[in-house]
């Protein structure tokens, strides 16, 4: 029941989620049909589990790095207001688990920011830490893509690829200007003043002020960027070993060229956890390297499943973690 004694409008929430469910199911079904289901099942049935087991071990490493880089980004929060490490780890892993069932990574980011704001951290600092974590992740994908694309002849000239790289580069450049340029900060503040609703404007100004705090922490930003590059490299190697298990003979250079771009596609908030978009991206990109659609589709499913496996520790914490004291008071 809400404050007015009315039941939550669950049908309305479901209606907002339904289009993404339809897109995920429809796109996945279409790509599976184009890849020939029997061929996909044959590719999966003949898989070698040994390289795949190594890929699972690498997931544990990349999740640890992801948690570490977010903790580093909390450098702008006063030490007296910063939650203990255990609470931060719980917030991070639970939010990644919950984000598995929400549109792309946007839902998980929102859960993380909201949970952090409940731990005596200002809403502006909470949103800014998650925003910077996401932006530096995009920057690392961009750098990895720029390094990998020249390894595959003719791919860099593709219009969709160039457009995606340009959009990612523009977003990263805009963020750098917001952090380090006072003029850009003033322009952003003036734009925020034109937004409707006082609550939205106030939140925007608080987040902008929190983002600009990072200008005093260039060393921490570089540290997080290096960790983000390491995370992307680990994901590329994970995909490579999954491909090896499926018998895909493409060299590691192909994965370095394509996986960063596929990860950019998976970030689009149109489905859940990249389901559907990842299948389309894997099949489309790996076809340019001569990989058949069936093993490419199987690789996409395993890659998404591997990400879900990496989120399972958050599910355990969510299921068996201690409840918050204020939650207990509400129940009583």
Can you put this structure into words, describing what you see?
This protein starts with 9 loop residues before the first helix and ends with a helix. The chain has helices at 10-35, 37-45, 49-72, 85-99, 106-117, 123-148, 159-180, 182-192, 198-212, 218-245, 252-266, 277-287, 293-320, 325-331. The protein has one domain. It has 332 residues and is mostly helical.
So what's the overall shape? globular
How many DSSP-defined strands? 0
Continuous helix count: 14
Q: Structurally, how many domains make up the residues?
A: 1
Strand content: under 5%
How far apart the termini lie comes to 16 Å
Radius of gyration from CA coordinates: 21 Å
Structural descriptors:
0% strand; 14 helices; globular; mainly alpha
């Amino acid at each position: 029941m809400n404050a007015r004694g009315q039941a939550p409008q669950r049908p309305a929430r479901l209606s907002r989620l339904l289009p993404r469910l339809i897109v995920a199911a429809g796109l996945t079904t279409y790509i599976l049909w184009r890849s020939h289901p029997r061929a996909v099942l044959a590719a999966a049935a003949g898989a070698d589990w040994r390289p795949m087991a190594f890929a699972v071990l690498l997931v544990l490493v990349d999740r640890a790095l992801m948690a570490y880089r977010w903790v580093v980004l909390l450098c702008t929060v006063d030490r007296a207001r910063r939650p203990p490490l255990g609470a931060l780890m719980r917030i991070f892993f639970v939010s990644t688990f919950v984000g598995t069932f929400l549109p792309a990574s946007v839902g998980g980011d929102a859960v993380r920011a909201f949970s952090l704001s409940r731990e005596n951290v200002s809403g502006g600092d909470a949103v800014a830490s998650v925003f910077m974590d996401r932006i530096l992740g995009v920057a690392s994908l961009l750098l990895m893509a720029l390094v990998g694309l020249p390894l595959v002849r003719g791919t860099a000239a593709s219009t969709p690829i160039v457009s995606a790289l340009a959009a990612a580069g523009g977003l990263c450049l805009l963020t750098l200007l917001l952090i380090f340029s006072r003029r850009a900060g003033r322009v952003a503040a003036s734009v925020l003043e034109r937004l409707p609703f006082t609550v939205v404007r106030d939140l925007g100004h608080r987040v902008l002020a929190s983002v600009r705090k990072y200008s005093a922490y260039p060393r921490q930003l570089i540290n997080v960027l290096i960790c983000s590059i390491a995370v992307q490299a680990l994901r590329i190697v994970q995909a490579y070993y999954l491909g090896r298990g499926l018998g895909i003979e493409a060299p590691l250079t192909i994965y370095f060229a394509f996986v960063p771009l596929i990860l950019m596609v998976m970030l689009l908030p149109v489905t859940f956890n990249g389901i559907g978009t990842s299948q389309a991206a894997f099949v489309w990109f790996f076809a340019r390297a001569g990989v058949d659609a069936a093993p490419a589709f199987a690789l996409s499913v395993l890659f998404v499943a591997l990400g879900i496996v990496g989120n399972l520790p958050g599910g355990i914490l969510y299921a068996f973690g201690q409840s918050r004291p204020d939650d207990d008071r509400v129940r009583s």
